[in-house]
Design a protein that fits this description.
Helices cover 30% and strands 20% of the residues. The protein has 602 residues and is α+β, with helices and mostly antiparallel strands. It has a domain of 164 residues. α1 crosses α2, α4 crosses α6 and α11 packs parallel to α14. The longest helix has 23 residues. The two termini are 45 Å apart.
Length: 602
Amino acid sequence: MSAPDSVHGRTPGHAENHAEPPAQDSPPTRAGWALRALALVPRGHAMHGYGLWQNRAREQRSPLYARALYLDDGDGAALFFCCLDTGYITHAMREGVVTALKCALGDSFSEERLVLTCTHTHSGPGGCSHDGFYNIVTPGFVPEHLDAVVNACRDALLEARHCAAPTELRLVAGSIAATVPVAWNRSLRAWRRNPEATPLSAREAHLAIAREMQVLGCYRDGQLCALLSLFGVHATCVGNSHNAYDGDNKGYAAASVEATLRTQGVAAPVAIFAQATAGDVSPYYHGPGQAAARRKIRGEAEFDYARANGEHQARHALALLAQGGTRVQGPFDGVLTYVDFAHQTASPRFTGGIADAATSDPCHGTAFFRGTPVDGPGMPAVLGMLAGGAARLLRSVRLSPLAPLTPEARAYYRQLYAAQGPKPILLESGRKRLLGQRLEHLALPDIADPMVRELKQQARRGALRDSALVPTVLPVQLLRLGDTVLVCAPGEFTTVAGARLREAVANELTGHGITRLWLCTYCNDYMGYVTTREEYQAQAYEGGHTIFGQWTLAAFQTRFAALATQLARPPQARSHDRDMRPAPAPAEELALRSNLPVPVLA
């Protein structure tokens, strides 16, 4: 299933193939591009993505890069776009890059028009967040990793700006043929709950995704020199048994295009392969016999598979651009605001008329800890069932009228469980409790799991007392490139959730000169997943990792739609909040979980 990329509802499945000449009086568009390697030394820290204690970087398989684009409409508005070969973007990364660019460029730099995103490779550095939870397995915060990321982004973006020159930009979109083995929906049972879903058999999971790729091409003297591709598929071809940094499918796609362009005489090409709706999309076959099929691809074969998957994406991007496209004509623009998604009431427009639908403090469900069946299995099924039963028992006790709770606590839990719906909550990430127990008092023995042991140790030493486990104040951003708007969303959106988000933004921009909406995910911060409410009820992995509850998507639709109304106004008439930011982690607590000893594994 694929959603229209246009505010007019154009059905995808073909490439746009028309290029209009620029208006005679329009200033020339300027663009630049550059890449910089992440200066990482693999020293045994756990990589970000699989969340497994043993998935540690001890060698470098392929280079990891920051790839940057600088776009200037010639009339004073510049856009900065950087994609990292990492599993996530964190506020610490973005804050460091913003500070560096402000220092270098002064008032000419606008934070609202900077996008940081990532390929979501699961074989990239961990330890780059000031929040606690996603760093637990690393273990802790690794300042040298964050410095490497920030420095590479800064240098790539400044070099892209420095080498900017008159450039023709073209946009094109078209679907990857169903016969190309590039992506499958890994949560078909949840996907089928959506009213948008079409009848598909278990063998047709490759059709339950957005197969359309969107591409921006950068041309000088008629020659393609750089591109940005958006297509959603997890970068999990390289599994969790390896110990090397690797760019996975998106990294191999970029390398393939750059090698092709170099053979055509391009001196320093840059190819960015970023993500769209990858939340429920796997690069591996899903359907009858999926486990056996996955077992056949092990060891070195996983790297070959990643390369092949990336080359499918690379070939499609180049084929689309070979057919032409629509020339980008200004203006360029951008709006950015931060929203506390733990305390949002969603508009009835996006809740089916329910007026009091609200989010809550973040919670991780048992499905999150059980993982995904093919890409990343987690805790054993039996343990997951026991944890789910304990979570449901705790819920019934807390909601009982006989529970010995204060009125404030009773009201809190009623709101929490109303927001979280059917999720069996294992970790209350906001209040830092696991099955109701404070982290430092967990009854689970240290030998049960090394991640549990590390979590308890950090909590006991006071490293997590006032620090957030996961971010809740998150960036919402829209960029405009002429008649195209790029929706820049944090986290991982499922196929249908992403389509609904685009529609919510499109409805606010009708009549304002916008003809297409593209979605880029994993932008500017990371907090987990966003499913539709219907998918959430299934409590597959994606629903268990939708931390703000069953109205998370509706809250994002509400806030993105509101921001779209601001983008439609002249800059001087905009009134969105430009000041809110996440609270900084307490310096003394960050120090307690920084540069922790790396475990030696047998």
